[in-house]
Amino acid sequence: MKQTLNPILVILVIVFSAATVRAEVADSSAHGFTVRSTVTVHGSAMQAYQKFVRDVGKWWDSKHTYSGDASNLSIDARLGGYFYEKLPGGGFVEHMRVVYSDPGKMLRMAGGLGPLQELGAAGAMTVAFVEKDSKTEVTMTYAAGGHMKGGLGSIAGIVNSVLSLQLNHFQAHAEEKQSGSSPRRGK
């Protein structure tokens, strides 16, 4: 007998999952924007930091990569390190450069993500890890500035949506052991 999913249950799961990320466009203008997303995960700030850095290829959505496969992503969180992606044929993409790393507390990377790289826009992503009562609040803030026809602020909502999605996947990955499920990411 073929089983079907209850559409109401599916909608509730989607709504509940989306509600786990607090996301906002903090500011926006023709010359730049700031977006911010926050999730809470179980465990220490150091555990969350390590999963964020070491497992980026497990939680980042493959649909938002150049290679189509998130397992090609790496964050080398050391002096001179990069958030980068290996491409087939020996190529690579430098997404961002690591400019600040305080394990268990903060990671900051500089660079233009996605279409911002082609525009020559500058960006800074700060990921803060704040531990309280055996849980960690993870806040990702991305500020970008530069010139874009039509104004850089016009894509703030799209960038906010994409980065919120990534942080939602991170949260699912970080909570994987508690729930026994794995995060959903496209490939």
Considering the chains and any ligands shown, give keywords for the structure.
187 residues; 35% strand; single chain; 8 strands; alpha+beta; eight-stranded antiparallel sheet; Alpha-D-Glucose-1,6-Bisphosphate, Chain A, domain 4; disordered N terminus
Characterization of this structure:
There is one protein chain. The chain is an alpha+beta fold and 187 residues long. The chain has a single domain, classed as 2-Layer Sandwich (Alpha-D-Glucose-1,6-Bisphosphate, Chain A, domain 4), CATH 3.30.530.20. Helix content is 29%, strand content 35%. An eight-stranded antiparallel β-sheet has the order 1-2-8-7-6-5-4-3, with helices on one face. Strand 5 (92-102) and strand 6 form a beta hairpin. It is globular and about 45 Å long. The model is unreliable at 1-19 (pLDDT under 50).
Query: Measured on Cα atoms, how large is the radius of gyration?
Result: 17 Å
CATH architecture: 2-Layer Sandwich
User: Could you please say which CATH topology applies here?
Assistant: Alpha-D-Glucose-1,6-Bisphosphate, Chain A, domain 4
Distance between the termini: 30 Å
Would you spell out the secondary-structure blueprint of this structure?
Blueprint (H helix, E strand, L loop, with lengths): L6 H13 L2 E8 L2 E11 L2 H10 L1 H4 L13 E3 L6 E5 L5 E11 L3 E5 L4 H5 L2 E11 L2 E11 L10 H19 L1 H4 L8
Short description:
The chain has 187 residues and is an alpha+beta fold.
